[in-house]
Amino acid sequence: MQPDSNPLSSSSSQLTKVAIIGAGNVSTHLATGLKAAGVEVVWVYSRTERHAQELAQQVQSQAITNVDFTVAPLADIYLLSIPDQALDQLAREAVFPANVLVVHTSGAQPLQVLSSISGVRRGVFYPLQTFSKEKAVDWQTIPICVEAERPEDERILKELGKLLSNQVVILQGEARKKLHVAAVFACNFTNHLWGIAQELLQKAQLPTHLLEPLMQETLEKARQFPPFMVQTGPAQRNDKNTIQAHLQLLAGNPQYQQVYQTLTRSIQTTASENGLISGKQAKND
User: What is the pTM of this model?
Assistant: First the structure.
C-alpha cells in the first residue's frame, strides 16, 4: 500500500474498515471504541454464533462464524483479539484475502505468531489496559503499542491508534513482552492481592470499604514516588513479631500464608539490594 492510499489519511472521508476477530473483553472494547471514533466495523467473528451476534449488534455490524474470511465483506485491517493460546491455531485455520493487514492484539505474543498466514501483511496493535465488558474505559488514556513488518503498515496502525488514544508508540516484540510481564505485576497480581484482602475482611465480618482510602493512597504514592523508596509495613521494618502474628492468623489458609511469606522475602531482599535496610536485618524473616 502506498502512503497516499492510506485508508487512515486525514484527506479520506472514509477512515477505514476493520474486521474484529473475537468477541471477548478486548474485542468488545476495541469494536465499540473504534465504532465511536468513526471507524466502520464491517463484521465480527466468533466461533460461538451468539457471542458474534451480541457484539455485532452493538456496533451495527455483521456476525460471522466461518474462518474463510475471503467470503466475508472485505476489510482494510483484520484485528485478531482472541486468547493467546488460540492465536496459532486460528492463524493456521483461517483464510484471509490477499495483501490485507492482519494484526493481533497480544502483549505477550510475537508478531511471528502470524507467520503461518501467507499472502498478507502482519502487525500488532496492543492496548495496555485491563478490560471487562461490564466496565467502560477511557480510550484516550490507554497506551497502544504497535508493530508491523513494514514501515508503512506501522504508520497505518499508529494512525488507527491515534483515533482512540493520546499515547501510541511503536514497540518491537521483545520490549513489548517485557512491558507485558511488568503489567501482570502492576495489574493482575495487585488485583489478586486486593481480592485476598477483601476475602480476609469478609471472613472477619469487617466492612471492605475500610481499606479503600489505604488502597487509593498506595496507588497515588506509587505514581508520585519510586515505589521501592516509599515501601512501608512490617516486612520493610523487619518487624518479626508482627510478621509471625500475621502468619499465625493465616494458618488456616496455607496458600495465602505462602503468598505472605514470599512477598515478605521479596520486600526485604529488594530493600536490602537498594540499601534501604541492611542485609543482616533482612535475614530470617
Answer: 0.85
